[in-house]
Amino acid sequence: MWRSRTNRDRKMVVCIACGTSVLRSEAREYDKEGNRWDRHGKEFEHLCKECYRGLCHQPRDELEGLLVEVERDGADRAEFLSRYFGAVEERYGSAEETNRES
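That's the Small CPxCG-related zinc finger protein sequence above. Prediction below.
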């Protein structure tokens, strides 16, 4: 017979966005790989419901790999953003080109 999961839901987790501690039952799982249904070998982070509602829920294929690629030790925020925007334009074209095609 299966045991109930009531014990799991009494656990406290910390929202990775705002730092608030909430009950696991009051949180949403966040999977940086974008596929929370594939659970094998993963540890999930959590978001409170308010922060979860504020997320963009659009597909993010290739995003994690792109971020890792442009991230370098010691880069400040401005340098990181410059590398990120350059890599996005290189892969997908500029925002102006995309808007003209629409």
